[in-house]
Design brief:
By secondary structure, the protein is an alpha+beta fold. It contains seven helices and five strands, in the order H-E-H-E-E-E-H-H-H-E-H-H. It has a single domain, classed as Butyryl-CoA Dehydrogenase, subunit A, domain 3 (Up-down Bundle), CATH 1.20.140.150. The chain is 56% helix and 15% strand. The longest helix has 30 residues. It comes from Brachypodius melanocephalos (black-headed bulbul).
């Protein structure tokens, strides 16, 4: 493949890696990982609420990796309560999984930045065959993609298997019991998924950059000259 095309491919991959690093950093600092609604089951059972009355007992909840907000609603109007995972909720959440998610997010950001730097170095410098060359680029992309997948698996298990939303909703609640009414992953979670797909795409771009297309090979001038001589 011509050097100019390789430079364009490496520049594209580098910009994608940089965008992923910035997107992952923004995702870590936001509260848009999970959105949902919580039902005050105790209050609803006390008044036998159903239909339109049930909405008076449904509150909202959203949170990220460090903090969030829940609206406690038990028939007397909503009351927003802010919370933080450290140190408030550290005793009731699966702390090892939660810390692992944050750790892998950090690794994802670091290696996405490293990959972006090496992609640019390969585009505008003289690539080496170990760290800055194809082996290194495959390595950075593989690590970033793997971290993104682990983040989604661990955080999904924390939310769905360990019922994280219910634990947060019932934090310091002595009278009322809250149940998860609806729950869905929000923008920050899907940003990590996009980052994983982008790093997988970068691995494909590296392969394309190293592939010699048949039509890109120069023609053999000696063969052409011989054919012309035979014509005369």
């Amino acid at each position: 493949m011509p050097a100019q095309q390789k430079r364009l491919i490496f520049c594209t991959a580098g910009l994608l890696s940089l965008a992923c690093a910035l997107g992952a950093a923004a995702a870590v600092g936001t509260q848009l990982w999970v959105r949902g609604t919580i039902l005050c089951s105790t209050g609803a059972l006390l008044v036998n609420a159903s239909g339109p009355e049930l909405h008076k007992f449904i509150g909202d909840i959203h949170y990220g990796l460090f903090s969030g907000q829940r609206v406690r609603q038990c028939g007397l109007g909503g009351r927003p309560l802010h919370f933080s995972f450290f140190p408030d909720l550290l005793r009731i959440i699966p702390a090892s999984i939660h810390v692992s998610v944050i750790l892998f997010c950090t690794v994802l950001i670091v290696f996405a930045l490293v990959g972006a730097g090496f992609f640019m170095l390969n585009a505008f410098g003289s690539p080496y065959e170990t760290l800055q060359g194809p082996v290194g680029l495959y390595l950075w992309s593989f690590i970033s993609c793997s971290c993104g997948c682990l983040i989604m698996i661990l955080f999904s298990s924390e939310v769905k298997i360990h019922h994280l939303s219910e634990k947060i909703a019932n934090f310091k609640e002595g009278t009322f019991t809250f149940k998860t009414h609806s729950e869905q992953f929000a923008n920050s979670f899907w940003t990590i998924l996009v980052c994983s797909l982008v790093h997988f795409l970068n691995a494909l771009l590296i392969r394309i950059a190293g592939f010699e297309f048949p039509f890109s090979k120069p023609k053999d001038s000696g063969t052409i000259t011989g054919a012309v001589d035979l014509m005369y």
